[in-house]
């Protein structure tokens, strides 16, 4: 709904989930939500956004969440302060999976996790086509769901905290697009003082792509992850990957696409004891009327 100096949005969201594991479980549930968002320019230099959402889950009941954001101009850029709450129910695998010989099993007693996040962001244009943003955030989570219990069973961690800084930069020049981002973060299980599992302190991505007049394109992406703690106190080493992709417009409706993941055939463990895929290639034919 368009307002004089802003907009109002309302909506309804519904999804149903069903899962089956032979000889173990057959479960289903649904979630219905209503939400509203108000986005308004309060004055020449201020913009306020407020939103709320009510979820009604057939297993866990109702939960209300909120978000608020305030932005103002600063020089050539914009400063934003954002605060919000979140709510996530465990999925059926986290609740009922039999695991692997008892390892990494689900937990029917899991409770939903809830969180609140505060973020401060600055974003600005650099030249005619460049964009830069820097943000600092802190998230506090209650009842975080993690496979950290006995035999790595899914459990709720009473309190967890994630703090970090994110940087993003993008540049568009003619038909070229370059983008990069980096995250520095610190995570903690507040009850034990240990880092949260499988969350690296450092990660970064850089990508470049080129579009052609006939609708074809190609691009590459580099991703790097720092070391991270895993179950059993194992510290997994960092790794980096190079991925390539391209698309060729055969006709206005059909495109041939090629993607190569892990081009340099790096060997690494995303999870302790589980190897990742080696170099992989995918070919697809896409149709868009």
Describe the structure.
The protein is an all-beta fold. It has one helix and 16 strands. The protein has one helix at 92-96; strands at residues 6-21, 25-41, 46-57, 61-74, 77-88, 113-126, 130-147, 154-173, 176-189, 202-211, 217-225, 228-229, 235-236, 239-249, 254-261, 280-287. The strands form two sheets. Strands 1-2-3-4-5-6-7-8-9-10-11-14-15-16 form a 14-stranded antiparallel beta sheet. A two-stranded antiparallel ribbon has the order 12-13. Strand 6 and strand 7 form a beta hairpin. The longest helix has 5 residues, at 92-96. The mean pLDDT is 92.
TL;DR of this structure?
This protein has one helix at about 90-95; strands at about 5-20, 25-40, 45-55, 60-75, 75-90, 115-125, 130-145, 155-175, 175-190, 200-210, 215-225, 230, 235, 240-250, 255-260, 280-285. It is mainly β.
pLDDT < 50 stretches: none
Rg, alpha carbons: 23 Å
Distance between the termini: 30 Å
Helical fraction: under 10%
Number of strands: 16
Strand order of the largest sheet: 1-2-3-4-5-6-7-8-9-10-11-14-15-16
The geometry reads as globular
H/E topology pattern = EEEEEHEEEEEEEEEEE
Helix and strand content put the structural class at mainly beta
Average pLDDT level = 92
Helices, by number, come to: 1
Share of β-strand residues: over 45%
Largest sheet data: 14 strands, antiparallel
């Amino acid at each position: 709904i368009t307002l004089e100096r802003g907009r109002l949005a309302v909506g309804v969201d519904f999804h149903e989930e069903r899962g089956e594991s032979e000889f173990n479980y057959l479960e289903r549930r649904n979630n219905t939500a209503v939400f509203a968002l108000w986005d308004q320019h309060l004055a020449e230099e201020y913009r306020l956004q407020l939103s709320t959402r009510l979820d009604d889950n057939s297993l866990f009941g109702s939960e209300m969440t909120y978000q608020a954001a305030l932005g103002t101009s600063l020089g050539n850029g914009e400063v934003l302060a954002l605060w919000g709450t979140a709510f996530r129910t465990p999925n059926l695998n986290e609740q009922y999976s039999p695991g692997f010989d008892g390892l990494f099993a689900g937990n029917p007693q899991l409770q939903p996790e809830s969180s609140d996040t505060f973020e401060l962001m600055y974003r600005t244009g650099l030249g005619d086509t460049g964009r830069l943003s820097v943000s600092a955030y802190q998230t506090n989570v209650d009842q975080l769901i993690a496979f950290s219990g006995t035999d790595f069973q899914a459990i709720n961690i009473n309190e967890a905290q994630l703090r970090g800084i994110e940087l993003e930069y993008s540049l568009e020049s003619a038909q070229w697009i370059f983008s990069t981002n980096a995250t520095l973060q610190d995570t903690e299980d507040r009850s034990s003082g240990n880092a949260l599992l499988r969350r690296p302190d450092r990660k970064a991505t850089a990508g470049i792509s080129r579009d052609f007049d006939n609708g074809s394109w190609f691009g590459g992406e580099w991703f790097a992850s720092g070391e991270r703690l895993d179950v059993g106190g194992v510290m997994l080493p960092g790794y980096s990957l190079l991925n390539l992709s391209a698309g060729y417009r055969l006709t206005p409706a059909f495109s041939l696409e090629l993607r190569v993941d892990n081009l340099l055939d790096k060997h690494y463990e995303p999870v302790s004891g589980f190897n990742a895929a080696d170099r992989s290639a995918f070919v697809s034919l896409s149709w868009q009327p």
